[in-house]
Amino acid sequence: MSHKKFSRIHIIVMDSAGIGEAPDANHFFNHETPDIGSNTIGHISEQVGLEVPNFQKMGLGNIVPLKTVAPTESPLGYTTKLEEVSNGKDTMTGHWEIMGLDIKNPFPVYPDGFPEELLSKIEEFSGRKIIREANKPYSGTAVIDDFGERQIETGELIIYTSADPVLQIAANEEVIPLEELYKICEYAREITNVGSEWMLGRIIARPFIGKKSGEFDRTPNRRDYALEPFGKTVLNHLDDAGYLVISVGKIHDIYEGQGINKDMGHNLSDMDGVDRMLKALALPEFEEGLLFVNLVDFDAKYGHRRNPEGYRDAIQDLDERLPEIMAAMKEDDLLIITADHGNDPTFVGTDHTREYIPMVSYSRAFKEPKPLPIGHFADISATVAENFDVSKGDIGESFLEALV
């Protein structure tokens, strides 16, 4: 093992917490509106207020001007914003780039719904009909309100998509058991893999419970069936070198388990994800390596549903847990808090937004933290790779030496 600056690095992805339109936002759209002017954290701060004293101390307000999060002269952490190189604004593209991959060709999306041939194959395998009226980009809560009662009556599948390259299958757990739903999703994954004419980033099982419209609730039994990354990521290089690589939340799904050698499981909520992170930090075998956490509620519950108040509350909830996380860290641990794309809850439409992502860091080993130059998503993995003396990904430049 090399002489490392940090023995353990912990990355938290606040899923979708972008921090201002990317330079190429005009090439990405919410329906017919370009993502120009999107700013997830900025607009939450401006329109509903954001009280995050711990993030403020770390330097969040030093990245860009925020109405209710002031900059600080002596931040606890190094900060910057990072630009996406890859052609996309979805979860997989963002996470894969963070770990060093350059996704040049975007995944296909289906703004008019999935082709009949694909649906027919799923019907033939499952023995269940598909509700054709749901086959289009749809809000995950709206689609079960609109078709959940019909599914209870008929046993049909609710298959829908979004602006992302995903196929989602919603099913009432009392009508279609989880095991059956997962098998159908596994089959859908098989026929939409690399090389398929319908190659999709993720197949998502979306189980729910309830008896009638307005009372349906999605359960924590969601499962994501992702493509394997198109190349080796820094996670693979860490695993190959014998380091512990721990995942929390949907990280394991996003990378299809590649390079991850310990999984702490799926989050029941973002705060449950923090609890799982704290358990990982306390593992006696976790002496060296990477802890990688995804907190998805920001995106799934508040960004897509265009709920700025809920999004604000979720950020503030995480802010309240930061002292607990920092106290659980060792002297030579490094914490990086970032995002994977934007999803401005004040913007038009319901889709992700093409934005910069924040990079806020903390370590007790820091001497004089300050803002860093603007970088790219993959700079995070390049920094991790240099710290542990393993190969970096296809892209990214390390900022390790700047962390004096």
What does this entry show, briefly?
The protein is α/β, with parallel strands linked by helices. The protein contains 12 helices and 15 strands.
Cα distance spanning the termini: 21 Å
Percent of residues in beta strands:
15-25%
Globally, the shape reads: globular
Discrete helix count: 12
Main-sheet strand order equals 11-10-12-1-13-14-4-15
| CATH homologous superfamily classification of the largest domain | Alkaline Phosphatase, subunit A
Helix content: 25-40%
**Overall number of strands:** 15
Main beta-sheet strand count, sense and barrel state: 8 strands, mixed
**pLDDT under 50 segments (min length 5)?**
none
CATH architecture classification name of the largest domain: 3-Layer(aba) Sandwich
Return the average pLDDT rounded to an integer. 96
* Rg from Cα: 21 Å
Order of helices and strands: EEEHHEHHHEEHEEEHEHEHEHHEEEH
Folded structure, characterized:
By secondary structure, the chain is of the alpha/beta class. It has two domains: 8-103 and 230-402, Alkaline Phosphatase, subunit A (3-Layer(aba) Sandwich); 116-226, Alpha-Beta Plaits (2-Layer Sandwich). The protein is 30% helix and 17% strand. The protein contains twelve helices and 15 strands. The strands form three sheets. The chain has an eight-stranded mixed β-sheet, with helices on both faces. Strands 5, 6, 7, 8 and 9 form a five-stranded mixed β-sheet that branches. The chain has a two-stranded antiparallel ribbon with strand order 2-3. α1 (40-47) crosses α11 (308-328), α9 (270-281) runs parallel beside α11 (308-328) and α10 runs antiparallel to α11 (308-328). The longest helix has 21 residues, at 308-328. It is globular, with a radius of gyration of 21 Å.
